[in-house]
Write a structure and sequence with these properties.
Helix content is 51%, strand content 14%. The chain is α/β, with parallel strands linked by helices and 219 residues long. A six-stranded parallel beta sheet has the order 2-1-3-4-5-6, with helices on both faces.
């Protein structure tokens, strides 16, 4: 597994690199800015990029913006985002591009080596690794009813594939149904989860987060 690390804190950057190399993983580059990160991805074509949310020069959303751009320029790139705390707007922006090969972890998880490595391998394998605390804070409405129990078995299947990051065409191919049927199922999912078109959050992202929250609670 070839890895690029983008983190402006030198202690954390080198610490993560040492940890991964001790696990016989190939850290091909470490960078401390969005521009050098994008250049490293273009040069080394890693399997996974580990990216801090806040990077120079303003330490706001440069890391997220760079991660989104890297995934646009290099389809198939797996990205594991690290953040000191939950950045709701930035996390939603990142998730809006699809959840396949994507992870979002709080930095405190890095110290829990097994969890961190599990998330890294899951993302590299094409899956999703969203920190439970991130999911909990992104779903800010307090409720006892997630709405998922209202879904039919087929709607559950569609939502599970959405959580894998599949688009409507890929979902239709996986389930051997028409795209029109997928659109119909997704409209029904949104309705049953009470996700109105006027919701500020992206409905597809919110639906996936509901699914991930329920999966984590049961798992």
């Amino acid at each position: 597994m070839r890895i690029v690390i983008a983190e402006d804190d030198p202690l954390l950057r080198e610490g993560v690199a040492l940890l991964l190399r001790a696990e016989s993983l190939d850290v091909v580059a470490t960078t401390d800015s969005p521009d050098s990160f994008l250049a490293a991805v273009a040069t080394h074509r890693p399997d996974v990029a580990i990216v801090d949310v806040r990077m120079p020069p303003t330490h706001t959303d440069e890391g997220i913006a760079a991660a989104v751009e890297a995934r646009r320029l290099h389809p198939g790139l797996a990205v594991l985002v690290l953040s000191a705390y939950v950045e709701q707007a930035f996390a939603t922006e990142l998730l809006a591009g699809g959840t396949d090969r994507l992870g979002y972890l709080l930095k405190e998880r890095v110290g829990r080596v097994d969890q961190f490595l599990d998330a890294l391998h899951r993302v590299a394998a094409g899956g999703t690794a969203i920190d439970p605390e991130v999911v909990a804070q992104l779903l800010t409405r307090t409720r006892t009813d997630s709405g998922l129990e209202r879904l039919t078995a087929r709607e559950h299947d569609v939502l599970a594939l959405m959580a894998e990051g599949l688009g409507n065409t890929a979902i239709s191919e996986r389930l051997f149904v028409t795209e029109g049927a997928v659109h119909k199922h997704i409209r029904s999912i949104f309705a049953k989860l009470d996700l109105a078109p006027t919701d500020r959050a992206d409905r597809r992202v919110t639906a996936v987060l509901r699914y991930l929250e329920e999966t984590q609670r049961r798992g």
